[in-house]
């Protein structure tokens, strides 16, 4: 396991390697390549990649994209199935199975599947509610304390690495040139970022062939160049 000093040393060694061919084509290539260089096993488990040092995240300097902070399904229990049955629509690629895919923010209602109706999120008291302007109403929400715990479990600290890149697909290469440790999560900041639409929520619900609800993971996401807004402290590593 790395200490902060040994991680800084390893990141400097990686920086001195210059451009490194991707270990996987596509959007996740940068993360896979960096994990391999740091000797980290790929995982989808809630918890930090680098132990006490934090979760590892990386981004391409010439691209602005959304990254996932954490995933958390809304309450009450089994509400995803109710949301799917009430607001879902047929996925033409999957033999009439229903899906509900929607990116939601706190600034205004979106629209779902070409309809005039959609969702937004709003903090009321100790809950973040999924609001709807559909004729039919479903109560779905996240407890603020649950969101705080989910964030702090996944991102008590964050090791954030930036890379210059060139090429595309299988021929993409990365030069890792900048890295920080971010810490000091502020839920007050998190709530403000929700209200300003900077943190967005991706709802991804589908169906198995037998009709059971399939939760692909409700993701809380932010632009990679704004993730530092969630944290109070920053230490430069590279």
UniProtKB/TrEMBL annotation:
Does Nuclease show up as a keyword for this record? yes
GO MF annotations in UniProt: endonuclease activity
Q: Where is the MvaI/BcnI restriction endonuclease domain?
A: 9-231
Give the matching CDD domains: BcnI-like
Keyword terms, alphabetized: Endonuclease, Hydrolase, Nuclease
Quick check: keyword Nuclease in the entry? Answer: yes
Name of a matching Pfam family: MvaI_BcnI
Name of the protein this chain belongs to: MvaI/BcnI restriction endonuclease family protein
What is the organism lineage in this UniProt record?
Answer: Bacteria, Bacillati, Bacillota, Tissierellia, Tissierellales
């Amino acid at each position: 396991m790395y200490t902060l000093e040994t991680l800084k040393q390893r990141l400097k060694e990686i920086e001195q390697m210059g451009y490194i061919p991707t270990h996987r084509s596509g959007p996740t290539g940068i993360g896979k390549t960096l994990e391999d260089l740091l000797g980290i096993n790929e995982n989808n488990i809630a918890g930090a990649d680098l132990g006490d040092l934090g979760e590892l995240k990386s981004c391409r300097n010439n691209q602005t994209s959304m990254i996932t902070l954490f995933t958390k399904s809304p309450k009450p229990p089994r509400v995803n199935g109710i949301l799917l049955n009430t607001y879902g629509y047929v996925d033409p690629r999957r033999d009439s199975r229903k899906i509900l895919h929607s990116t939601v923010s706190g600034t205004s209602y979106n629209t779902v599947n070409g309809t005039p109706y959609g969702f937004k999120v709003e903090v009321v008291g100790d809950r973040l509610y999924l609001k709807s302007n559909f004729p039919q109403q479903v109560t779905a929400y996240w407890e603020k304390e649950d969101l705080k715990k989910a964030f702090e479990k996944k991102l008590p600290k964050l090791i954030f690495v930036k890379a210059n890149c060139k090429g595309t697909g299988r021929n993409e290469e990365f030069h890792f040139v900048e890295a920080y440790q971010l810490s000091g999560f502020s839920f007050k900041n998190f709530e403000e970022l929700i209200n300003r639409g900077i943190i967005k929520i991706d709802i991804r619900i589908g169906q198995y062939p037998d009709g059971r609800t399939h939760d692909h993971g409700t993701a809380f996401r932010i632009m990679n160049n704004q993730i530092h807004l969630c944290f109070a402290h920053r230490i430069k590593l590279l």
